[in-house]
Amino acid sequence: MSEQSTAPEQGAPSAQGAPSEPGAATSGTGIADRYREAMIPVFGTPQRVLVRGEGVHVWDDEGRQYLDLLGGIAVNALGHGHPALVSAITKQAETLAHVSNVFASAPQVELAEKLLRLADAPDGSGVFFANSGAEANEAAFKIARRTGRPRIIALENAFHGRTLGALALTHKEAYRAPFAPLPGGVEWLPAGDVEALRTALAPGDVAAVFAEPIQGEAGVRPLGADYLRALRELTREAGTLLVLDEIQTGIGRTGRWFAHQGVPGVVPDVMTLAKGLGGGFPIGAAIAFGPEVRGLLTAGQHGTTFGGNPLGAATALAVLGTIEEEGLLEHVRATGEALVRGIDALEDPRILGVRGEGLLRGVMLAEPLAPQVLQAALEAGFIINAPEPTTLRLAPPLIITAEELGTFVAALPALLDRAAQLAGAEEGN
Ligand SMILES: *Cc1c(COP(=O)(O)O)cnc(C)c1O
């Protein structure tokens, strides 16, 4: 097969030419067209083709620069090309990249110890390493099954991933329905409803409750301290595991190592991590708190080829080390608050407020224009995200400065103007 013959040359001008209609992916390299040809189209049309990143900026294949306020969806904790990350990856790749789990390696053990320390996990706790968030939740799901109890509770609007077990926990019907039958026993409760939780747990047959301290994909919706406390107290009374999915909220994203640490007394039985943990390198983790929970999985009951390999573990250690050395937890709290103050100070009636914590924020819009604001932002050189029509999500690299965030805040009123224009043009079509 001569793939090359139909593919435009690297660097050839875009077939559509620039500037194009707003929202369409343009591409100076022809990669966007080849993407359409070569990929299974589960992600829809990519917004841009990116070629390079440095710090909090990325560049597309037409040479345009963007301030990255999404960080690969809460992944690029240290931004792009951070020297500590590059050096850790390079050194570890030169030394030992992968050994399989037939062997142990120092980075893997050091990372496990470090995560247990940062999570204030009690003696006898343990870590399982995976390669993604969904896989971390699969491990948690299997731990839950091992309790022998039949029911599992998740929350309405929850997102826990796309593999079949993680999908079974995910609330959105449209994601689940095409893949029935999924692992059974899962039911959903409205987040925040303590009485519903009490009733559901009362029979004593619930293996686990899965919850995200802040529901990221649902539009950055915090569960709130009171509900988190109720979750902890009621699951403890019922002998039910509390599984906190901190895949999006963990690793400093909220200005604490893990979001639940903002609510004293709330310690999970299992915590899942991924996204920011590798700063762009794929790695996930499920942490079992205490010997009893850890003992639910025994030799041979779970596994992975790549999970916890020295390359991924060394990279994650560099992420955690850099967050410590650069004082990023405090920085995230301060910049997150500055962002909220800045948006509040706009006193723009088209903005209802800001949800979230640290540098995981949802800007609530009065009108369902988030997709159009996203397009306007791209035109203006900002990468943001629209998890739902009335919410803009910001999850920038943790190293972003208040000044850099300020450029977005200053641009926001004009982006809302432009979004209304784009919506009007769509209606006119
Ligand atoms: C992203 C995410 C997942 C899934 O992680 P993948 O790495 O995409 O499998 C699960 N839970 C939450 C809360 C997430 O934000």
UniProtKB/TrEMBL annotation:
Its EC number is 2.6.1.11. It comes from the Bacteria. Pfam families: Aminotran_3. It is an enzyme of class 2 (transferase). Residues 1-29 are annotated as: Disordered. Its cofactor is pyridoxal 5'-phosphate. One of its GO terms (cellular component) is cytoplasm. It catalyses: N(2)-acetyl-L-ornithine + 2-oxoglutarate = N-acetyl-L-glutamate 5-semialdehyde + L-glutamate. It is found in: Cytoplasm. Pathway: Amino-acid biosynthesis; L-arginine biosynthesis; N(2)-acetyl-L-ornithine from L-glutamate: step 4/4. Keywords: Amino-acid biosynthesis, Aminotransferase, Arginine biosynthesis, Cytoplasm, Pyridoxal phosphate, Transferase. SUPFAM superfamilies: PLP-dependent transferases. N(2)-acetyl-L-ornithine binds at residues 162, 304. One of its GO terms (molecular function) is pyridoxal phosphate binding. Pyridoxal 5'-phosphate binds at residues 133-134, 159, 245-248, 305. The keyword Mitochondrion does not apply. Signal peptide: none annotated. InterPro entries: AcOrn/SuccOrn_fam (IPR004636), Aminotrans_3 (IPR005814), Aminotrans_3_PPA_site (IPR049704), Class-III_PLP-dep_AT (IPR050103), PyrdxlP-dep_Trfase (IPR015424), PyrdxlP-dep_Trfase_major (IPR015421), PyrdxlP-dep_Trfase_small (IPR015422). Its main location: cytoplasm. Binds 1 pyridoxal phosphate per subunit. Belongs to the class-III pyridoxal-phosphate-dependent aminotransferase family. ArgD subfamily. Homodimer. May also have succinyldiaminopimelate aminotransferase activity, thus carrying out the corresponding step in lysine biosynthesis. HAMAP family: ArgD_aminotrans_3 (MF_01107). This is Acetylornithine aminotransferase.
